[in-house]
Write a structure and sequence with these properties.
cytoplasm (chains A, B, C, D); 4-stranded parallel sheet; alpha/beta; 16% strand; 341 residues; Phosphofructokinase_III (chains A, B, C, D); 7-stranded mixed sheet; homotetramer; Rossmann fold
């Protein structure tokens, strides 16, 4: 069998580990042949490929990023995109496709499957907000990077009697903030799932300053105050339509300073959360995802994506990926709240 | 309620995180009072205690070891030991006990519970070989430390065209070797559950030397060859005139040198696998274990231990801890074998 | 002798190592007695002290921050400040003072010395911009943290074909940018000492995109374009008079996007560069500084500060600290330029 | 000019950084051409080469090991070895040679230079025991790895009331032990330069056990007791019935147990000290060494090796490399002794 592999969406530590596992087992055990598609769906859309054999995947296990490149190209939104992909797969003699990506990438995979393409998905989201799987790879790495940063912030906060805010990833789900905050000993954790009361946050800050320690606040980029509080200053839009300035972390610092009279500073972790070498947990999870994905292809079990349930890697329907966002349940946030203040 | 806390058995990253969570929620939410028993069961046996309040647990979340100290004292094996403990608990006005430890510590807890002591257990084993729980804290830290070492060994092996062997913990179960080996890109992984064939190991080593890479072998301390193989004893000279001593790692190096004529060297990771700051995963798991344990006490749900199942923290019978060793199943080892050679 | 110790100015990994060395040798070898002054010059100014003995310094060697706290209080600028300090020292029976801090802190020390206070200085600047010493502690830690971040950014940049900008500390001197950029394999390094030409930067970015790698730009917070280029948008001032938004990193990203049409993103490392555990280099340097400082006190050699010259710790005049900023010499920047583009 | 490059002797983090700097500046600035010789002197001896251009050195800066491979082949000890090398250099049109290695490798370089070969040396020793240079690359990485391990051992030692011994590299010079021990807060440091008195070591161990901390002993592999002390041989049973094997670390543990009645355990760090990614310090130093070496070639300044003096990279005679071992001076050891016990 000749199998195409692609990685779509945002960078995530463990992508290369998936690719390696797919190829190692595909070639070594099942006797498959592979072709790499470049930059997510752009690859099959434009017929841009790269060689993908045992040699190509040697040494990539510990490396962040993806040797295949990535993009956010969405063939569904392009006129004739799906047909073009089917055409290119046929032209290249590609029998099946393994698509590694998040909600968007897997959504495309589902639509292609519905139109007869043999596809298996591997879920990828650093935000851990996918319902069908207990964890996604990349998340553990992101959390560890954030915790290392928070560990460092503690000593600075204490030495300077200053509140320090650490803004982490998480637009719609607060998993990174929750885990990093719990592991980092944060005094307050703010997540998108639960609009925060700025008065309560300031009360925690002030009560913390009464100890010999100083407050550390971990805030997901998508967290926001309850309605009516903190008139958020809109940042400027850059050439690509992204907000450049003044995320929630910075706004929170201003607000805390204004209300408590104490100094507050923000660190926005940004891209370092999603790059670099994956943790052991992510390497093992990504490797096992890859092994299961290629087995699904070998079994002719298409339209599926792989998932972690407990300690087992299972297969679920591709539509599971796009069904519903897995947000932080109230119970998990209450666990963290025990340590607030 | 006045609650005693103790930690028994070997050191494990996350012990302090459990203690902190127990005390923070016990004092802050339930209004409990605590007493720390020193050095595992030696504490209640000899009535040796230390203060355990909010101040005592500040700042300990990221710290390895246990502020309570540990020992392998087993009151069951001491004449009148159990009675002595009951006496000391009564004398100290201790209503309930939280025992954090492995098979031995929890076995004692079970027996005390059977004799009327109100006890809740928190499982601890760096080896991850406890059946009742998906993972135990400390394991993820140990695996990450081992992987960091293996990452380093790769470049040395390649530069010197040398086989490098990394001996990790695991007397009866090969979990650390399995996960560290998979995550570290080992060419062979040897675990206690499956006696190895030295000829096959040497074949992997030789085939690896034909690539531009060099072999890395991860071996659990309890791994052993199939019967009749490898007779080299501690202290013999190897093929290169070096004295070979000690454990399976060293013996394996000798045997590989003798059989393949290639240089082989061993690194025994030892204690560094169980000390120091826990990973984010272990800090979160240990914290959640602590929260659940103190809730069990509050609920009067004694004779239980806490456990991880999927993403949930649950309570199971204390006897689950001592029932059966969780060894590496054949299927998991076969996953790893895909990458051998 | 009874000796006061204080730490002033910004947080810096290694401060605790200095304090520990001073106290361990002072008490253990010379038989001194110590008093800790809180929060830099605020301590002796307001007579706020804390106990400082062998027990107080146990376990602090690996910890970031300063157990004495810090502030930017400047007694010179306070009416009667110097007199107040002399009064408080006399009242507390303090025979000599060890002041650990940067240009400001040591400038005050010099003025006090001129007015008869027995003082020895220990230089501290994470920016490494002090002329009298080859290196200052904290710098090596900051550089390593930045390099770890840059290592992570590489894989993201490549996977997304995106320019990534890493803004590091350095308002007046580009040492952190220079070393982190060289060690991190940056394609361009921008430092305050040399106004950059945005056209040349964009040329590097574009030439880099022609390889399979992507550009990483390391920029010191104080770097700026040659006059007339890049109309910097002034950020808003916060309650403490700091610029909140839109540092050079963000402006550079906008400019690169505008000029090259390629995506560019910025990570501002901020406070994580100055917190947390020091590297081995900084722990050894800080310890040796502490030992030399207490020996200077013991020798009655006041008005001096300790310094590293080659591999030796020497004593130089306190005025050396404030003489002249040690900026990056042209030759060092030219070394780095070899790797640009 | 066509320039050969080789790396000889033991693995050392930073070798690839040197190679990269040499090639980047050689090709990019001076217009040189390069050829890589494989496995140290074996390469030019057997005429085994590999391509070495800009592409070959991309991405190798952060990688441990050496892309050229290494060996301990010594052409001086091989009949006609030197002539063979000259022949192969001539045959390959190699105008000059850059030899990166330790005492042995540079000793050969010196002899070749004396026989008319145009050679420049780059010193490499993880042990830092080379007189002509303040530091060698690889040393800082080794020390940091050792310190990380020691940081981890502290918590285990304390939790178990156990002495922990960490054996580090250093056969003839105790630099790694000295720096790692100082930075790791060791209670005793034992180095080859100063035979130790086992009674004094045991006294430190016992005094440490009287605090709430536990003893950590850092010992260089080449350390040894004063004559007549410690007669335990490999393979004997220690006071706790464990088989004691091997190096000074293990023997020391036995002796301490026998004499103090306290448990003692040893960790031998071994190869992980010399593998893996270099620290920022080592990357910068190795890069600057490479730049200076290729400039020396360009200047026709042969028979030299590069060296660090203060913050400057200078050139000294190749014979400086082999003159005299740089051992730890008494004064530096006395600094460390302040913290013993």
């Amino acid at each position: 069998m000749r199998i195409g592999v692609l990685t779509g969406g945002g960078d995530c530590p463990g992508l290369n580990a998936v690719i390696r596992a797919v190829v190692r087992k595909g070639v070594g055990v099942h006797g498959h042949e592979f072709v790499g598609f470049r930059d997510g769906w752009r690859g099959p859309l434009e017929g841009e490929t790269m060689p993908l054999d045992i040699e190509a995947v040697r040494g990539i296990l510990p490396r962040g990023g993806t040797i295949l490149g990535s993009s956010r190209t969405n063939p569904i939104k392009i006129d004739g995109g799906v047909e073009k992909i089917k055409e290119n797969l046929a032209k290249g003699g590609v029998d099946a496709l393994i698509a590694i990506g998040g909600e968007d990438t897997l959504g495309v995979a589902k639509q292609l499957f519905d139109k007869g393409v043999k596809v298996v998905g591997v879920p990828k989201t650093i935000d851990n907000d996918l319902n069908a799987t207990d964890y996604t790879f990349g998340f553990d790495t992101a959390v560890n990077i954030a915790v290392e940063a928070i560990d460092r912030l503690h000593t600075t906060a204490e030495s300077h009697h200053r509140a320090l805010i650490c803004e982490v990833m998480g637009r719609h789900a607060g998993w990174i903030a929750l885990h990093a905050g719990m592991a980092g000993g944060a005094n307050v954790i703010l997540i998108p799932e639960k609009p925060f009361d700025i008065d309560r946050v300031c009360a925690y800050v002030e009560s913390r300053f009464k100890t010999k320690y100083a407050p550390i606040i971990v805030v997901a980029e998508g967290a926001h105050p309850v309605e009516g509080q903190m008139t958020l200053q809109a940042g400027e839009l850059d050439a690509f339509g992204h907000v450049r300035l003044g995320g929630i972390g910075e706004n929170l610092a201003s607000e805390i300073e204004k209300r408590t009279g104490k100094e507050a500073r923000t660190t926005v972790l940004g891209h370092i959360q999603r790059g670099g070498t994956p943790t052991a947990f992510d390497r093992v999870l990504a490797t096992r995802f890859g092994l299961q994905a290629i087995d699904a292809v070998q079994d002719g079990d298409f339209g599926k994506m792989v998932a972690l349930q407990g300690t087992e890697i299972v297969r679920v329907g591709l539509d599971e990926a796009t069904k519903e966002l897995k947000t932080v349940p109230a119970g998990r946030y209450e666990e963290a709240e025990v340590f607030f203040g």
